[in-house]
Design goal:
Blueprint (H helix, E strand, L loop, with lengths): L23 E4 L7 E5 L2 E6 L6 E4 L4 E3 L5 E3 L7 E4 L7 E4 L5 E3 L4 E5 L3 E7 L3 E7 L1 E2 L4 E5 L9 E4 L1 E3 L4 E2 L4 E6 L4
Parallel strand pairs: 9-18
Antiparallel strand pairs: 1-2, 2-3, 3-4, 5-6, 7-8, 10-14, 11-12, 11-15, 11-16, 13-14, 15-18, 16-17
InterPro entries: Gal_mutarotase_sf_dom, GH-type_carb-bd, Glucodextranase_N
Protein name: Glucodextranase N-terminal domain-containing protein
GO biological process, one term: carbohydrate metabolic process
Length: 180
């Protein structure tokens, strides 16, 4: 691999940057004159062919299922960003880490591969398995929590059916107050 060369400097006096906090700045491999930034779990800017004027800026990413569910990714709690190869800026972005939700809602999981949610209530009472379904958008599992009382805590790990492996971590969510 060739030694990295310096990115060209801005020729305009006031470069335009998105207001999102940056978690990553990357470039395409090879001689391509393309750069990008990532913040709040989404691509915030794409620069081509100049580094001082973005071709794409503040690109919102909304996940929807066509059945009434939608979520803007940058509105979620801060995602985890992982780069497996420090030479190639290809981030794996995970949007997950809330611990509470209002009562009266169903809990939906949207993941990239087939999975099973093994859940128990308040210390693993009444354990139940819920298999994900392929919704084309991804694999979705819905836990019907609408009738559970405030203060109820759901405990669950994920089982990846393709690999036959558990996630290796137990998650929990506590239902809080009334749905606004």
């Amino acid at each position: 691999m060739e030694a990295a060369s310096k990115a060209p400097s801005a020729t305009w006096r006031h470069p335009v940057w998105s207001t999102a906090q940056k978690a990553l700045v990357g470039t395409a491999p090879g001689p391509a004159r393309l750069w990008f930034t990532v913040g709040k779990g989404i691509v915030t800017e794409v620069f081509y062919p100049r580094i001082d004027v973005p071709q794409v800026r503040d690109m919102g990413l909304i996940i929807a299922d066509g059945k009434g569910f939608w979520q803007e990714l940058k509105a979620l709690p801060e995602p985890q960003l992982q780069i497996d190869d420090p030479v190639v800026p290809l981030p794996a972005i995970t949007h997950w880490r809330f611990r509470q939700m209002p009562t009266g809602n169903e809990l939906r999981f949207l993941l990239s591969a087939p999975f099973t949610v093994h859940r128990g209530v308040d210390g693993w009472q009444d354990p139940t398995d819920t298999l994900s379904e392929d919704w084309d958008l991804g694999h979705v599992a819905i836990l019907p929590t609408q009738t559970m009382a405030a203060g109820t805590t759901l405990h669950f790990p994920f089982y990846w059916r393709d690999t036959g492996q558990w996630q290796g971590e137990d998650f929990s969510i506590t239902l809080q107050g009334e749905n606004a």
